[in-house]
Amino acid sequence: MDTLHIYNTLSREKEKFEPIKEGFVGIYVCGPTVYGDPHLGHAKSYVSFDVVIRYLRYLDYQVRYVQNITDVGHLTDDADQGEDKLEKQAAIEQLEPMEIAEKYTYNYFRDMDALGVQRPDISPRATGHIIEQIQMVEKLIDNGHAYETDGNVYFDVSSDEEYGKLSGRDIEEQESGSRIETANDKRSPEDFALWKKADDGHIMKWPSPWGMGYPGWHVECSAMSTKYLGEHFDIHGGGMDNQFPHHECEIAQSEGAHNKPFANYWMHNNMVTLEGQKMGKSLGNAISLHQFFSGDHELLSRAWDPQIIRFFLLQSHYRSTTDFSEDALSGAENGLRSLQEMVQTIDQAKLEDAGDSSYDLESLRTLLESKLNDDFNTAQAIAVLFEELKTIRKDINSGNIPANIEEISQFLHTFVDGVLGLWPKKEQVSTTDDKTEQLIELLIDFRNEARHKKNFELSDAIRDRLEKMGIKLMDGPEGTDFKIKK
Fold it and tell me: For residue 184, what are the contacts with CB-CB under 8 A and spacing of at least 6?
């Protein structure tokens, strides 16, 4: 595809991407509820959207990326009943809810950093935007879309003729998305909470026109996305499991409050499964990212490098299910190593050794862009890279270095590093296996012996030949060390 097309969950088809404001993209992605460590399902979502953001910037869009932190209002039934997830975890760990929020927010960003996920431009917290949420609830009451009853405020689903347009559900099917008995103060079971009355034992609560309480889970995203991106913005993203009820409710609230379309494009990533079952904290089968990185879990035989996890996830399309197994991770490890070795070979090739013929870089650029323009298909883009880089590396190893090798290397930095986030780590560039190290040490010993015998012609020849191979010798008072050139 010549231009970017995005699968829009709202229309259920791929659409040409046309931003509201030329050259600018506003995107909101639902962030984590910070009551536990992030797991592989979080990684699937945020690595996927990380590539979306990186590619939009590659296309020279100015991007404002907003991703919230949910630190209040997300109840254990994912709707209107149960305990607040942070308060429940606070009781388990015998901490204050805000201590829980701080602890797991820190862990979230720590693990996302390790995965190479670039941080959002704005990371608003629900507890920091209570005023905006109250104001939105007041607007919805004024516009006839909400009602108050005994300190609770509910959205009146019957007031919105388009409710269900994102998920495609009929009202009869919805039953408010709750897995337990519907609150008896609602006019209809499908109505959902905008503001909840807090009982005496509830810790996180704020004064409001309806008494002491706390916001519903859904209203925070509507309030914060419109505060930082405007009442009508380009892209809203999140996990497929949030499509209903969370995102459906967001649309109803936002469009009911502002009387205009909410987000033009809705993107949803699919889930990670373990033996066909969704992985998640609520199901008790989630492996935290920290456990992947340390290997400290009964289902893991070893620690896994964050870049292997990232590559594993990008080998499938963001809308496809990713089934986890250690065999799949091992395959990803081999694939990543192969890709990065090809990149290193090209990146370290010297222009002065290049021939007269050039590689068709523009065709590679066009082909890679066509894959990501087709709804960010990272799996196909990676397949193209493997095929083309093998050819370039083969030419280099046979002495036919392309005349435009520097342009190829620069483009790979831009695409493999800047878009996919899969560039070899610095320590990988200088890593050698044991046998290679032993051979280098042997040559250093031969050189030192030649120097001792004042055979400087031979010692200089060893040093110069190693230099051409990208191995720099460093003489010091404690002997000779070496490093692999970057």
Answer: none
Residue type, 314: L
Max Cα–Cα distance, the chain, nearest Å: 97
Q: What residues have CB less than 8 Å from 243, skipping those under 6 apart?
A: 9, 166, 167, 268
Distance CA 55, CA 249 (A): 29
Amino acid, single-letter form, for residue 29: V
Q: State the pTM of this model.
A: 0.85
Q: pLDDT tens digits for 74-130?
A: 888 877 888 999 999 999 999 999 999 999 999 999 999 999 999 999 999 999 999
**Tokens standing for 67?**
């991703």
Percentage helix, strand, coil for the chain under 3-state DSSP, each rounded to 5: 50, 15, 35
Q: Could you tell me if 24 and 17 are in contact, meaning their C-beta atoms sit under 8 angstroms apart? A: no
φ, ψ dihedrals at 421, nearest 5°:
65, 35
Q: Which two tokens stand for residue 48?
A: 């996927």
| Dihedral angle of Cα 297, 300, 303, 306, to the nearest 10 degrees | -100
